[in-house]
Design brief:
alpha/beta, QueA-like, Thrombin, subunit H, globular
Length: 341
């Protein structure tokens, strides 16, 4: 299986640049994974396709303003930091641009010296381990100096930071949003819960590796990035109760899928745990934990496209994406959604 098998042509004008005013007004493609049949709805119709006794599993991670612009101490050369992963209290793994300015021992400052950083280590993929120095509260400083790390395919400036957060975001730590969840409003979630659907939250902090196209020719040779996850006993118990009683487990987003499939036993039982997962799901994978998936439309040749192809069948997915292009769906982070069941 080659990476090229997951390529499709996407006109640039179909890449959504801004979120819709009403989160629930996005289009929703319904895909039957058994037959490949497609139906066209709006996201507010999702409630009609959820049943009493089902369980909706969502990722409550919260995106941090992870992009910092500063200068190199001494030379004043401009630098961009992108925070990827917190390793210790003030020690982070980051991407730096331009990287050549960031040898071990290099120092940088942000906000006129409110925040300083020193490069401690250059790691294998060219990222850096840096130590930050500051007075005050880290979260307040980051909120003041940082910008939302929107994906590079979004060129428009985001005027409201909360539109790149789900309404249920809670646990800070992501470098990117779990975008399938952006379509929900609190009102819609209340209606879904009133219908008898159990709402469950887990956490997976999304890294930028999620969106990178696979660069190797053979899919099996791809080295998957690692991301931190956490699922507590209450969430696991609710999911297990749903399965025991014959309800469906519907994952919202590929991050929820990866977490559930990481912690699931062979019989689908979910065990509470936390840690780092580098699970790579592509066609041939046998799913243990989920019965349905709500997701956005993903980049060509990406691991996310491979995951949904594993769940719904590659032929069904590639046909659905061809249909989405023909029907002028909006793609990627601020785009439309798909419900696979």
């Amino acid at each position: 299986m080659t990476t090229k098998d997951f390529f499709y042509d996407l006109p640039p004008e179909l890449i959504a640049q801004t979120p819709l005013t009403d989160r629930t007004a996005s289009r929703l493609m319904m895909l039957n994974k058994e037959t490949g049949d497609i139906d066209h709805k709006h996201f507010y119709d999702v409630i009609d396709n959820l049943n009493s006794g089902d369980c909706l599993v969502m990722n409550n991670t919260r995106v941090i303003p992870a992009r910092l612009y500063g200068v190199k101490e001494g030379s004043g050369g401009k630098i961009e930091f992108l925070l990827l992963k917190r390793l210790e209290l003030d020690k982070w793994e980051v991407i730096l641009k331009p990287g050549k300015k960031a040898k071990v021992g290099s120092r940088f400052e942000f906000g006129g010296g409110l925040l300083k950083a020193e490069v401690l280590e250059v790691i294998e993929d060219g990222n850096r381990i840096v130590q930050f120095e500051y007075d005050g509260v880290w979260e307040e400083l980051l909120d003041k100096l940082g910008e939302m790390p929107l994906p590079p395919y979004i060129k428009e400036k985001l005027t409201d930071r909360e539109r790149y957060q789900t309404v249920y975001s809670k646990i800070e730590g992501s470098a990117a949003a779990p975008t399938a969840g952006l379509h929900f409003t609190n009102d819609l979630l209340k209606k879904i819960e009133s219908k008898g659907v159990t709402l469950v939250y887990l956490t997976l902090h999304v890294g930028l590796g999620t969106f990178r196209p696979v660069s190797v020719e053979n899919v099996e040779d791809h080295l998957m990035h690692s991301e931190y996850y956490q699922i507590d006993k209450e969430a696991a118990d609710k999911i297990n109760h749903t399965r025991k009683n014959g309800g469906r487990i519907i994952a919202v987003g590929t991050t929820s899928v990866r977490t559930l499939e990481t912690v699931a036993e062979q019989d689908g039982t979910i065990k509470p745990s936390s840690g780092n997962t580098s699970i790579f799901i592509y066609p041939g994978y046998k799913f243990k934990a989920i019965d349905g998936l709500i997701t956005n439309f993903h980049l060509p040749e990406s691991t996310l496209l491979m995951l949904v192809s594993a769940f719904a069948g590659k032929e069904n997915i590639m046909n659905a994406y061809k249909c989405a292009v023909e029907e002028k769906y909006r793609f990627f982070s601020f785009g439309d959604a798909m419900f696979i069941q």
